[in-house]
Fold:
Amino acid sequence: MDACVKYGLKPGFYYSTVCNGYYDVNDSVPQDTHGEAYRAYVKCVEAQVKELWSSYGPLVEIWFDGGVIPPEEGGPDLLPLLHKYQPDAICFQGPKAWPHNVRWVGNEDGLAPENCWATTNAGDARFDGTIPEEKAGVGDPDGRYYWPAETDMPNRTHAAFGGGWSWQPNEEHLRYTPDQLLDCYIRSVGRNSNLLLGMAISRDGDFQDEEQFLAFGKLIRETFSDPIRQIDHPVLADSRCEIRFDAPQWVRYLVLREDIGEGQRIRAFRILADGKPVYESACVGHKRIVPFESLTAAELVVEITKAEGRPALRDLAVY
Structure:
C-alpha cells in the first residue's frame, strides 16, 4: 500500500469468500452453509475483510473471485462492512445490493462480446461461466442493474503454469506478444469493457515480464495518441456526424465514445465511407474501437440508426 501511494497507483484487494483450503471450503463442491464448520468460516471471512478494509485506506476495487454467497443463503454479511469501511469501492461480483458492482465478462481470454452493454438484468453479479448465465457477458441494454463488464486475462497464455496466471521458469515463450495484447485491448476496452491483465509473479516476488508490459503500453500510445482527426462533442444532425478529409485517407481505427451521463442511449449505429456502409453494430457506451483492415476514404459518416431518447457522442476520432 505504501508503494501504491508512492507511485500514484490506485490499490485494490482480491478476496475469495467461496474458497478456503484451511476450512475445506470450495465453491465447486456442495457446501453445508448452515453447518458448524461453515459458520466458523463465515466468522473468519467477516473478521478478515474487516481487517483488510479498515487498515489500509480507501480501495478503488475489491475483487470477489467467484462472487459472494448472500447471507440469506448462509454466506457472510458483507454489505454493512462495505458501507462502513469502503463506501466508494467498486466490487467485482460483489453483493447484489452494492451500488458499485462490475460483472465478469465470462471468459479469461481478454474477449468481450461485440456488443457488451453496461447494464444487465441477470439479477446477480456472480457468474461462473455456466450455460444458464452465458448472456452475463453481453448484458442487457434495458437492464435494471448498472454492472459494466470487466474483461480479465493473464499475461501468459493458458498453456502456461496455472492457466497463465502463475509463474514458473522457462515459460517466457508463452507470454502474449504486444500485438496480441493490443488485439485484446481493442476487443475489451474497445467494446465498452475494461481490461484486467494479470501479472505472473515469480517465487521471489518479482515481476519478470516487465518488458512485455512496457512494450504493450508503448504500442497503445503509438496506436492511439495521434488521431488523424478528432471531433469533441460532435453535433448530430439527423442522427449523423461527418468527417471529411482533403484527400482520401487510410483508416485503421475509428473510435467512438458515447456521452453516458444519462445512460447508454445509442442502440444501433453504422459507419459509411464515401457513402457506402462499411460497418454496423449496436453498442457504443464508454468506448467503441472499430478496426478496419483496408479502408481508404475521403469522407466518413457515423449514423445513429436506433436510440432510446436523444443520443449524444462525447467524441469521435480517426486513427
In short: Confidence is low (pLDDT under 50) at residues 128-132. The two ends are 38 Å apart (CA to CA). The helical segments are 2-7, 36-55, 79-85, 178-186, 210-224.
